[in-house]
Amino acid sequence: MSGLGELDRPGTPDVPDAASDAGAAPDGRGTGVPRRGAADPVKALMHRHRELCERAVDPLEIAAGLEAHGVTDRTAARFRHRDVFSLAEEMYARVPRDGDPPPPAAPAVLPRPRPDWALLTLLPGALCAATLTGVRLTDGRTCLLVAAAGLLATVIAVHAALRRGPLSGPHRAHPGLQRTEAWTCWLIGYAALGDGLLRAAVRGGPDALPDGTAAGPWPFAAARLLTLTLACAPAAWSAHFLAVQARRRLHSSRGLEEFAAGVQPLPLAALALFLCGLGALTALGAAALGEPADYAPVLTLGALLFLARLLTVHGFAHAPAVVVAAAGAAEALAPATVFAGRLPGCGFLATPVEGLMDAWGPAGVPSLVCASAALLLLIHATRTLTRASAHARTDQPC
Length: 398
Description:
Helix content: 55-70%
Shape: elongated
Distance between the termini: 34 Å
Structural class: mainly alpha
Number of strands: 0
Radius of gyration: 26 Å
Largest sheet: none
Order of helices and strands: HHHHHHHHHHHHHHHHHHHH
Number of helices: 20
Strand content: under 5%
């Protein structure tokens, strides 16, 4: 797991040695003739981070920026401050401002969510439900037109939900974000159609049954698709919960270690909150469409996509891009190995997938792949989302 931990680690800290620059020992007594212009180490630090100090709206943002550059509480002690937060307060106070209001106090209660993003997160599920209803009530060319129009509308609604509120990403898109979105579409498509594809591959072809007769229509897991679109709402609320609680810890903490200890349970709590909502939606969608409730593939895929979006929102887009792409490639590889096993002398290639299907059915492949990928992202999230810098730069409107 050390590889994932290094993916988003900040670069080498660019912090001067305060004691040597000031020509003084840590206790303030001079050890020699101080160099010209280096008697104020905090001023030198402010010069190095001038842009951060000028655009900061409160000391907490400066503290988060310093932490992102590698400044720790131990480093702050060389500037004669007990922690990074105290150092940031002095830096913020020394930046010239005319008529600026005092730093905002910590909110007493959770702010109410804005109705725009709250309604947008409900739109994908509503459109998907309407599309599935239209498909069941029509046939022939009309059914195809309804399915195409509904799919397009649902995709647009999901895109809008991910651009507003707690699920909106950073202003500067990560280079791999488009590839992540493409692999996400593949994962959702596999959730709806992958079981039929894998079952057909094991049987020997899309039209073959074990007795040689023709197979019926390709099975479509409509309940899974409906559940995943409805999951935009609990995902947004869980991300909102994490952002507000982390911001509150940022206001109340007096050191980076104290903040990290207070925030560490929050990603787990947000994930648990999301999975509870997703589990309820899985049962509801299955009952509404008369299909079995496939908890394992839906919960594991939902956890993977939620953690990937959560990390992307907080500025750590590289690890989700790698892990989501690896999960999508693994799901694509499963039926490919089964088809490749039909070649002479290559039967061993299909053995792992066929064994997994015999044990857990076709849903075992996506469940195992997504669960492993989600676990990797969860471990990565517990290490990265405990940084103050991760939450200061994602102060989304609530």
